[in-house]
Protein 1
Amino acid sequence: MQTDTAKPATALKVVIVGGGTAGWMCAAGLARLLDPAAYDVTLIESDEIGTVGVGEATLPHIKTFNDMLGIDEAQFMRETQGTFKLGIEFRDWGRPGDRYIHPFGTFGHPWGGVDFQHHWVRARQAGQDVAPLQAYSYAVAACRANAFEFPNEDPKSIRSTYAYAYHFDASLYADFLRRWATARGVKRIEGEVRDIARDPASGHVQTLTLKSGATIVGDLFIDCTGFRSLLLGGVMGVAWQDWSPWLPCDRALAVPCERAGEFTPYTRSTAQTGGWMWRIPLQHRTGNGYVFSSRFIDEDQARETLLSKLDGAPLAEPRLLRFEAGRRERAWSGNCVAMGLASGFLEPLESTSIFLIQAAVLDLVNLMPTPGDGDRMDRRLVAEFNRLFEIQYDRVRDFLILHYAANQRYGEALWDHVRTMPIPDSLAHKISLFEARAWTPNYKYGLFSRDSWLSVLIGQGVTPRGYDRLADGLSLEDLETRMRDLQARIETNVAAMSSHAAFVARYGAGRVEAAHLASAAS
Ligand SMILES: Cc1cc2nc3c(=O)[nH]c(=O)nc-3n(C[C@H](O)[C@H](O)[C@H](O)COP(=O)(O)OP(=O)(O)OC[C@H]3O[C@@H](n4cnc5c(N)ncnc54)[C@H](O)[C@@H]3O)c2cc1C
């Protein structure tokens, strides 16, 4: 572990502004993954301004990030009141009464080199007695049973076909990373940035002046100032791309409540008249929120609905957050890189924001300016960072829009609007390929995987007319047997799993919560 040392004069001075999840994930990543002698990392945060204080559901990639940092998982769970997450349940999204899970796992096997969905579509079209798609996912079955175990590493095991993420308390997570990063050499300055000076010739940021009058110099500045986007949007003037025509939700009310109801290993998202509600089970409480469009429902109605649907007594007054869907045209401009809310915002429907921060941190580490170059930025590296940023955001955007656009909630103003609005060509193309041939995207970089698209397309009621003709290579009798065996194997294995509550109680529970969870498990 590196504590503060005198750095060589050539060390690149990295100044992170903002100490929310983005700022501290970035600080932790840079402290662990860069040579501490070559990079000098300082983070400025303002206690007075505070953080957005939400962001409690994640994607499985966060485990890779934590592992890269060398974070002890059980300690992390204890200190953030964490629970496990195997997917997201969508209730009433396709139409009222519908339920499906977007699992962190696969559906079936690619028999004969052909993806499972083609066999499934073929079997249904042939009139075979096959179950709904959801029955062929191990992670879905585990969610339905409120069960959790770590995946098996043997690729032949059915228990290797899923991954997991976490739910955690957002403020505890930022605290955890703060302690972690400062113990590894990141300098923390408490203060509010009031003034930003740029070099008149290059336009690069040179110094920040704090409310106290102190000035901070740097070579590379990371803007993690949240929705303010103080450096990238404010000083560098990078334009905002407004995606609200496709994603009209612009408000959220967030409220924690006492832990009650099922201790689910998944996030729940329930569609509502004016948007949707989230439910995130933590060890010590349940996080809830109503994400809504102020064009279709007013704040009072949303508050009333939210409070009427809590599992337990509210632990605070609902807190209102305002936002707009979209992203900056670029995330890196001059010597300034933005991450987190300072670079863009996509509603938390698929828990993507923390993943987007993680991706930006790792891309930045890969493309980091060379020590000794000072604030001279290599344009090729900057362009590559921005290209990757655009890919990430644009793909998540399409995936989120799919949930809205493919709905059959007829007669409800918001849902009629999103069903009939023009959608991006890139999404229209994906839907039409799926309808024609059950084809789903399979990206090497970025979100989401083939199985994710499959779960949401089928879950939202999009039906393929055709399938990959290579699937015809398997006899229908053979196919029926394989599908029956697969389903049985999933059911038998899930039945032998530990309950989520029992697993958390013995693995990563805080002292007080262990007893509660043990009683929830029995
Ligand atoms: C309703 C809602 C629900 C969400 N749910 C999820 C979820 O389930 N999963 C997920 O992945 N993401 C979620 N997100 C997104 C997630 O909350 C954010 O991506 C994450 O918290 C990162 O925020 P941030 O660090 O960019 O900004 P913030 O938390 O706002 O931090 C900004 C920081 O900048 C500092 N700052 C600002 N101005 C100055 C200044 N002038 N001087 C010094 N410091 C300054 C502040 O003090 C603060 O430390 C959600 C977002 C919203 C709005």
Protein 2
Amino acid sequence: MSKEKITDIAIIGGGASGLAAAIEAKTIMPNAKVVILEKLDRVGKKLLATGNGRCNLSNTDLSEGHYHGSVRNAKRIMQATPSAKEFFGSLGVLCTADSKGRIYPRSNNAATVLNALRMRAEELGVIERCGFEANFIESGDNYFRISTASGEKYPCRRIIVAAGGYAAPQFGTDGSVIRLLRSKGCHTTKICPAVAPLRVRPELLKGLKGVRAKGRVTAYSGGRFLKDETGEIQFTENSLSGICVFNMAHLISRFDGKLTLRLDLAADMENEQLMGYLRIIHFQRGKHTTDELLTGLFQRNLAAYITKRALGKPLTDKIASLTDTDLRKIAQLIKNMDFDILGSAPWKDAQVTSGGISGECVDDRLQLRSEKGIFLCGEILDIDGDCGGYNLQWAWSSGIFAGRNCAESLRGASL
Ligand SMILES: Cc1cc2nc3c(=O)[nH]c(=O)nc-3n(C[C@H](O)[C@H](O)[C@H](O)COP(=O)(O)OP(=O)(O)OC[C@H]3O[C@@H](n4cnc5c(N)ncnc54)[C@H](O)[C@@H]3O)c2cc1C
């Protein structure tokens, strides 16, 4: 194979981690030919949709508890790479954190993040090759050949696989490269949508579509407490949504699909405080019908839903007819509203993949153990973070780390 035809580093996937990997690799090895092979017509399409178009690119609290999966050295990788603020600062993107520690570009605009990444990649001489869908990797003695289904071949010395997982296939990520890596000796952990709404029986949500309420969500499996989180809960026709629900989705695969979410819709009130409130309202509104009992505590649809579900009877009776036991049932439901989870929302509604290529398949440089010269980064690996900037932080850190190690593995080679 003639030398000039071989690319030094080919990166499969031009998303968050692929762009970070390309910039780092080319910074370290300016003479290396670095090419991003992206299947869509342009790189970074998913990035534009992140954070509702604002790109929540990291978080001030990066403690390990926010990450789940089998990549054991994730914390070390994040410590060994610049923080998102430093990395983006070096690209001229200023960042700010909100009151919950979520870091955004100062522009509040995801396009500025993507543009800055692309500008730096271009300044360095990284080549973007869009419309190239990697379908197969052939290994030669000193090089690889990445090919498309139509037989186009791309020879290269090293590969960084940054092709994401299964979540949000509308942005190019359909898990096909995970399947490709299986043929390279990789194994995967259990895969399911994460950072996603959770499905419940639609009849349990009748009348709640579009309702939003503040509360605490606690996850249980077989009665065992798993975790809890407070925030806004959103109800749809057939699922529970909102960040505090999204962050429970990764538990489904880990607890064999046996998951119950308990909502406390008055997390700021003790039981007896809530009972005291209900008794006062019971006294004051006695001549009104029971559909008005919770007016002032919840929005109309939710108020009616709770009273109906707790008492199991129509809302046409007078509030005065309710007994103290009825009020207790209502208080009990407000603080302990259980939903058995049927599963996650489909991939198109999920933001992240829980599971992926097992951490056991890569060494501590993120290089495949079964095939030297191939490095992995981003969501394709079995690691997912909570909602709040954690997944993009992993994409930047692992991309930079894989880009650096991949470039360094070429040191001494005549490029
Ligand atoms: C709607 C939405 C909002 C989100 N918001 C946030 C947020 O605010 N904060 C946060 O931290 N995380 C967020 N995420 C998650 C975050 O975007 C991902 O975790 C992150 O982009 C993963 O980076 P990656 O480089 O691994 O993969 P991706 O960014 O998904 O990039 C993978 C790239 O590989 C390409 N590709 C796939 N297969 C092939 C192939 N065979 N050949 C060539 N190219 C291929 C794809 O087209 C894609 O461009 C959000 C996700 C979604 C869907």
